[in-house]
Amino acid sequence: MTTTINPDGGTALSDDVVPIADARGAEVAGQWRLMWWKFRQHKLAMASGVVVLLLYLVAIFAEFLAPVDPNAFNPRYTYAPPQELRMSFVDQNGDRQWGLHVNGYRSEIDRETFRRTFVLDDEDRIPVGFFVRSEPYLLAGFIPASIKLIGPKEAGQPFYILGADRLGRDMLSRVIHGARVSLSIGLVGVFLSLFLGVVLGGISGYYGGLVDTVIQRLIEFIRSIPTIPLWMGLAAAIPLTLHPLMVYLIITAIVSLVGWTDLGREVRGRFLSIKDEDFVAAARLDGASEGRIILRHMTPSFLSHIIATVTLAIPTMILAETALSFLGIGLRPPVVSWGVLLQEAQNVRSVVTAPWLMWPGAAVVVAVLSFNFLGDGLRDAADPYAS
Questions:
Q1: In which element (H, E) is residue 21 found?
Q2: pLDDT of 251-289, one tens digit each?
Q3: Chain CA centroid to CA 203, Å
């Protein structure tokens, strides 16, 4: 039971409304503080926000967190199964010390298929440590470093916590590095869609008339085109000889050009509903330019709604990149993204042999669910006065 402040200034007892610690200044609190109080009550959204933050920290510090280079391969460990981290006594130079280790591999031949398979060897223990030395690399692309968060204490020892792919590349390192591309393409794509949606939607709603008609017909035309064939047609026009960075930028632009229409219509509706409000008329009479009225007076009035919409749009962008890359018409190797990694899972036989190839799909599910829950919480918080 908590004490709350009623709108008429009195106090009351309630089970699920704003505590008095927050309600002390509720009558004069700003919009953003009210939004924070409302968002804080959404526990699932708070937890999802932490997960999203951790995902982006993983993307930023991918080189430090990944045990090895994502493109480093070792054919000796093709489709090696995941190793299990264990805590026990480890024999190091004749001394038994308490520490982490993983079991090594021994190779066996399957008598039915006559294929080589790997089996974890309980007698072969590989010591594992934190902050181990590694080959020099650039953290975040420009900071020289030679320390990894975790890895085998002896260089050259096999270390595949999430298993290996068909070339003997570490799946953990590839999933971590894939987060950087997949999560950043969502952010860049959403910001491009945000720009197009706010600008074109705002112009359409503010001016109306012929301008509104042209923009709305453009939106309807884009929405009438089947999404997958449109993506395939645009992506097929990308030359195979382009640099991977250029391909990344073009794929981002393709996803953004298709994804701005929903936000554009929402912004248009908001502009139509508030363009005749008193504060807009006052700004116009005060001599404010039309650009200032749109950007400084009208857009901030529903900025919280835009933030919630953008948060919900990021997982759509991530899924779009994953789908394009999975179909082979998006990003291509040597770029490492979750969609590119899932291309390995197109072969059913490979998935049966090495089910750990589906780990990038699990990463996509976690990211999309986290963004959706976070967006739901922000959407509810965008209207703090709703019950």
A1: helix 20-23
A2: 788 778 877 888 888 888 888 888 888 888 888 888 888
A3: 30
DSSP 153: S
DSSP state at residue 80: P
What pLDDT does 19 receive? 46
Mean per-residue pLDDT for 178-200?
Answer: 86
Contact 378, 39 (CB under 8 A): yes
**CA-CA distance, 86 to 305, in Å (whole number)?**
47
- Residue 51: the pLDDT is 94
CA neighbours closer than 13 Å in the CB half-sphere of residue 291: 0
Per domain, the residue ranges of the chain are 75-169, 175-381
Interatomic CA distance for residues 225 and 57, integer angstroms: 37
pLDDT-derived band at 91 (thresholds 50, 70, 90) equals low
In 127-274, where does DSSP find H-type helix? 171-207, 209-224, 227-236, 244-259, 261-274
Residue 26 scores a pLDDT above 70: no
CA distance 364 to 370: 10
Element (H, E) at 63: helix 62-65
Cβ atoms of 171 and 359 within 8 Å: the answer is yes
Q: Which two tokens stand for residue 39?
A: 């968002």
pLDDT score of 11 more than 50? no
Q: Which residue has the tokens 């009438």?
A: 224
* CATH classification (class only), 175-381: mainly alpha
| Cβ atoms 153, 128 nearer than 8 A | yes
The DSSP code sequence of 252-317 is HHHHHHHHSHHHHHHHHHHHHHHTTSHHHHHHHHTT--HHHIIIIIIGGGGHHHHHHHHHHHHHHH
Whether 324 and 339 have beta carbons less than 8 Å apart is answered as yes
* Cα–Cα separations (whole angstroms), residue 189 to 18, 247, 280, 345, 372: 36, 14, 31, 26, 17
Per-residue model confidence (pLDDT) at position 92? 56
Tokens 């884009």 map to which residue? 222
Distance CA 125, CA 33 (A): 54
